[in-house]
Amino acid sequence: MAMIPKNYFNAVVAIGSKSGTTTQWFGTGFIVGKNAGGSKYRIFLVTCGHVLDGQSEVILRFNNDKTGGIDDVSLHLYDDKDKPLFSFHDGYTYTDKKIDIAAIQINPNYLKKHDITYGFFALDKNALTLKQMRDTGVEEGTLVYSLGFPLRLVCNSKTMPICRMGCIARATKEQVEEKIVYFWICKISPEDQVVQ
Questions:
Q1: Domains of the chain: total
Q2: Per-residue pLDDT at 136
Q3: What is the pTM of this model?
């Protein structure tokens, strides 16, 4: 019996960039959904800041259940006036990458229109704050799984992130300084960016 829902695998994408006719893979991204009321979610790609740093466009690799293959989707990081469509965390600068996180809103309607298979981690259902972790019994030594594409291990026939197992190293208040993480989310267009 699988312990990780299939939807989780479809919420993890490889990130790369085009070099001629080939794609160089160099990162992992996570598709997350922020509740927009009821059962509606705004969809974002979250990754490390250094993955987007210096890029004008990246390629995301998704499965396509209709064709049984894969789809590489271009994601522009700047608008036509060179304004960034993504946001770094406030703790990230080009010289000090203290908090190495970036996020960009993506359009789920584009993915649906092209039969691209995707999932997302609903932040209100599939994520815990440090306090919620402690309150629900997550502590040092609790087993966890990580999904991603380490060492550029990206398959050419199916998008399947590598699954690794580990454990929580630090979770107590004394060991981890609690901070609330805020993203400045870019406005794209209000209604067509919501998925149910």
A1: 1
A2: 86
A3: 0.79
Nearest to 171 by CA among 132, 130, 137: 130
* DSSP category for residue 186: P
Q: What is the pLDDT of residues 42-67, one digit of tens each?
A: 999 999 888 998 899 999 999 888 88
Distance CA 31, CA 12 (A): 6
Cα–Cα dist 46/12, whole Å: 10
Residue 119 identity (one-letter amino acid): G
Place of tokens 């229109």: 113
Let me know: does 41 contact 125? Beta carbons within 8 Å: no
The 10s digit of each residue's pLDDT in 117-174 is 999 999 988 888 877 888 888 888 888 888 888 777 777 767 778 888 888 887 666 6
- What's the CA gap between 107 and 122, in Å, rounded? 16
Which tens digits make up the pLDDT trace of 62-106?
A: 988 888 888 999 999 999 999 988 888 775 665 666 678 899 999
Contact predicate 59/75, CB 8 Å: yes
- The Cα–Cα gap between 159 and 54 comes to 25
By CB atoms closer than 10 A (0-12, 13-18, 19+), residue 164 is exposed
Instruction: With beta carbons less than 8 A apart as the criterion, state whether 148 and 159 touch.
Output: no
User: Considering the domain boundaries, does residue 167 fall inside one?
Assistant: no
The reply to whether 30 falls in a domain is yes
Q: Is 26 helix (H, G, I), strand (E, B) or coil?
A: strand
Domain that holds residue 191: 6-127+180-195
